[in-house]
Design goal:
With 206 residues, the protein is α+β, with helices and mostly antiparallel strands. The chain contains 3 helices and 11 strands; from the N terminus they run ββαββββααβββββ. α1 crosses α2. The relative contact order is 0.18.
């Protein structure tokens, strides 16, 4: 991105030696068992809209997997994809911004996906290409919030919210128009989360 590579540049590998996840975690990338790719985007949008790219990436992966593999994935806000209760894909979006204009200069969407057991129904290259095509078709508007909401299984559940500085329990209420997760702590007012990580918890008695 810094060297001027164009939008749509796709980097694909069979193994990562230093994969990174959210909040600085290690992302395991076993050789030959997954699809690990990065797509460079250059949407002319405000930096505040960067999260819509992550939402678009989640929908793009769901569409590609459904099209090629016939599997229906669920989304755990904001960027994890699940199949039959197990995480099968993680997404990490990084961006460069123009500080004077407040607009994005580039976005790199990193996607790591594992096939959940058995022989893979398609090649890694075919799935990576389908994911990239779906993502580029959504860019720059990423007008897929309704589909994201329909696939997201978090609203309605009690969750543990980790912001990096604190962890607390809350009820997930909805995904708002900006893609934020609206939660409510016990005896507290609803608040909208732009970032962070949630884990679903056993249901509570209201």
């Amino acid at each position: 991105a810094l060297d001027g590579a164009p939008q749509g540049t796709l980097v694909l590998t069979a193994h990562q030696s230093a994969g990174r996840g959210r909040l600085g975690r290690v992302f395991e990338s076993p050789s030959g068992k997954g699809v690990y790719l990065s797509v460079l985007l250059r949407p002319a949008v405000p930096a505040a809209s960067a999260q819509t790219a992550t939402i678009g990436a989640a929908v793009a992966v769901c569409r590609a997997v459904q099209e090629l593999c016939g599997l229906e994935l669920g989304i755990k806000w904001v960027n994890d994809l699940y199949y039959q209760g197990k995480k099968v894909c993680g997404i990490l979006t990084e961006a460069g911004t123009d500080l004077e204009s407040g607009r994005l200069e580039w976005l790199v969407v990193g996607i790591g996906s594992l096939y959940p057991g058995g022989p893979a129904p398609v090649s890694r290259a075919a799935l990576a290409g389908a994911i990239a095509r779906q993502l580029l078709a959504l860019c720059p508007a990423f007008d897929c919030l309704d589909e994201y909401r329909a696939r997201c299984f978090v609203p309605g559940h009690w969750v543990a919210v980790c912001t990096g500085t604190e962890t607390y329990a809350a009820k997930a209420l909805a995904i708002d128009e900006e893609g934020r997760l609206v939660v409510q702590r016990e005896n507290g007012r609803p608040q909208a989360l732009r970032c962070g990580e949630v884990t679903t918890r056993p249901a509570r008695t209201e």
